[in-house]
Specification:
Layout: H1 4-37, E1 45-46, E2 50-53, E3 57-63, E4 66-71, E5 74-77, E6 83-89, E7 93-102, E8 108-119, H2 127-134, H3 139-154, H4 160-165, H5 167-183, E9 187-198, H6 201-268, H7 274-296, H8 313-321, H9 325-331
């Protein structure tokens, strides 16, 4: 068979398999494209006929521009042109937002706030997912506006020091305010953290100087207290030592008095009257004293030349000064 009929028959034989291969290729490409785009944000849409919803995501089907259904993770097929599938992530997102605010003492500070949130997937009949997709045009930006408003109602009522000390209380307050509003839009605020508080350079330098001055003052107080404690301890130790020394001297004097009394009793026992016993005791004491000075022999001490009950060194010196000059010259 030669001619147009043979040529047309050959074309049909090859065209049908080629068309079938092209259709399969488009289906595979569409499925792969849908699988790749599933990890996007709420606004991403699947373009292929076949698509895969992965774990912790759901698909929202819009049929002819109207909400139709919510599909769970797994393999699905959409009607081309008629259906549009939008991906909604159910995982917790972490958004970092920076705000400016002025404290009660007129210091402008910059706060870095970390907000963790997710779509309200526990609401009945998927209403939380529905609201998260169809109530806000830009959820992150609008949520940031709510946080800015709540934060700026908290900071101006506190001084700078209070902002630092009450950081957690401020975060809890703004979390409660914004959580109630965002729940109506299908979002759950998990937690709100103030991760950083930045100050102007001049304020930071002033605070550093204040802190350094406080540290120096505290150090000086500690040193003064340590010195006071040392003085008190030294004084207490000295008083205790003097007390012990006084007790020793008192005990020594008691022992001496007891010895003297025993000596006098012994002398009186030798058939001497009281006056004679006292004179004998004084004489022995005087002899002992002279012996001690003779042993040391380092200082000049004026002593009476002989023992006498009425002897006076001053009287002896005056008598020596009144001696005749001839006598003094003879001695020289």
């Amino acid at each position: 068979m030669n001619g147009p009929e043979y040529f047309l028959s050959n074309i049909l034989d090859y065209a049908i398999p080629i068309f079938i291969i092209w259709i399969v290729f488009r289906l595979v490409v569409g499925a792969l494209r849908g699988a790749r785009r599933q990890s996007g944000t709420v606004n991403d849409a699947y373009q292929g006929i076949f698509y895969i919803i992965q774990q912790q995501h759901v698909g929202v089907i819009e049929r002819l521009g109207k909400f139709h259904a919510i599909v769970n993770p797994g393999f699905h097929m959409r009607v081309p042109i008629v259906d549009r599938v939008r991906d909604v992530s159910l995982m917790t997102e972490d958004e970092h937002i920076t705000f400016d605010a002025k404290t009660e003492d007129n210091v402008t500070i910059e706060l870095d706030v970390s907000v963790q949130y997710h779509v309200d997937y526990q609401a009945a009949d998927g209403s939380g997912i529905y609201r998260s997709l169809y109530t806000l045009t830009d959820p992150v930006a609008q949520m940031g506006d709510y946080f800015a408003d709540a934060l700026r109602s908290q900071i101006p009522s506190r001084k700078l020091d209070e902002v630092f000390t009450e950081k957690d209380a401020i975060a809890t307050a703004i979390d409660e305010i914004v959580s109630a509003k965002m729940r109506d839009y299908g979002y759950i605020i998990v937690t709100t953290l103030i991760t950083s508080i930045k100050l102007p350079a001049d304020v930071q330098q002033s605070m550093n100087r204040i802190i350094a001055s406080k540290n120096d003052l505290e150090s000086a107080k500690n040193e003064a207290e340590a010195e006071r404690q040392k003085t008190v301890i030294a004084a207490a130790a000295k008083a205790e030592a003097m007390e012990k020394e006084g007790e020793g001297i008192a005990n020594q004097r008691i022992a001496i008095a007891r010895g003297i009394r025993e000596s006098i009793d012994t002398i009186q026992g030798a058939e001497l009257d009281s006056d004679e016993a006292n004179r004998l005791f004084e004489y022995t004491q005087w002899i002992g004293m002279m012996e001690e000075f003779a042993k040391k022999g380092s200082s000049t001490v004026v002593l009476p030349g002989e023992y006498a009950g009425q002897s006076s060194v001053l009287r002896d010196m005056l008598v020596a000064g009144q001696e005749p000059e001839g006598v003094v010259g003879a001695k020289n």
